[in-house]
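Pipeline run #58 for the internal structure catalog. This entry was flagged by the ingest filter as a single-chain record with no existing model, so it goes straight to prediction. Upstream metadata was stripped on purpose; only the residue string is passed forward. Reviewer on rotation: M.T. Logging verbosity set to normal.
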Amino acid sequence: MSLHADNLAQTFRPRLEAARGEAERQRRFPHSLIREMAEAGFFRLKLPARYGGTEVDHLSYFQLIEELSRTDASAGWLVAIGNEGAVCAGYLPEQAADDIFASDPNVIIAAGLKSRRAEVRAVDGGYRVRGQWALASGCPEAVWLGAVAVVQTDAGPRPGPDGRPELLLFMLPRQDCIILDTWDALGLRATASHDFVVEDAFVPEHRKLALPGGASRLPGPLWRGDLRTHLGGAAAVSLGIARSAIDELVALAADKVPLFSRGALRDRATAQAKVGQAEALVRSARAFLHEVLAAMWQTGCEGLAPTGEQVALRELAVAHAAQASAQAVRLMYDAAGSDAVYASSILERCFRDVHVVTQHVAGSTNRYEELGRLFMGADVRPH
């Protein structure tokens, strides 16, 4: 199956629409639907071609996640997170990538970036890993789980090459992990973003990756930058949510006659202004993001790694897309009045989902401050 957005709309949209009510209640999609999506290639968009991956360009990838999220944000989120796991195959040692992907290109990876507690110690041949990690989206379907932690020594955290504590990603088979049912959240409810516990597991030396991953060992434009150049699916998810909210408000406004009004909602100047604002927010944020993604891909096609400025602009575009999308959704929610408060309303779900995205580190307002410092410094200056 082709993975273009138009084919997605024709094939998986009806199944996602049919499944999303029960998926919200169960806080996960049916296993059969996730397996169908995996077999169609949704979780190997960013997987190296040598393992059966598609290696799609940055812009096409974000467009597909956006279109998927327009139908269901949880589905878009799971595909984005799954691909952020798959892309690690281009940065892990070859032996580790073979361990994980050689026998099954459709394997799903979940990762816990946030540790509630972690104790990792170096031992002969590898590491002993113990702890609990949160927000492992899609973990019920995962065959491998990644745990991010710092190695502890008797003298404290082990420093990396730059002198700061070295942050590592450890890859563990599912049988070494215990999933805890912790994901009962405001939005993105069907992502099953549970915690997992590792009581005591050995991770061999080759199954760890220093973040942000350094240079890839693979050829081709997709692999020119480090892992940061592949993250940020939250932006595409949020833009898809915002587009869904605008579509829903426009459809609602055609028939809704507000209380104490003689005309339809679509004839109210306040509603018209809010739709105009929302369109401007979403389209401008989308254009900024697409401009940055296209520039990074062109740089990769020229055989170069993205510049520091391009990486910073990408992260800024991701955060801005999430924040602008949330603004747009709030405008549509306000314009809809009481119709938007019911659990059956698409706008109610969009409101919940987009505000979970903005709590993610990639979509947080904190990113403006962090990235603003870069643009005001000597290392990165925008044109």
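catalog note: The two ends are 41 Å apart (CA to CA).
catalog note: The chain has three domains: 5-90, 109-210, 232-375.
status: ready for reviewer M.T.
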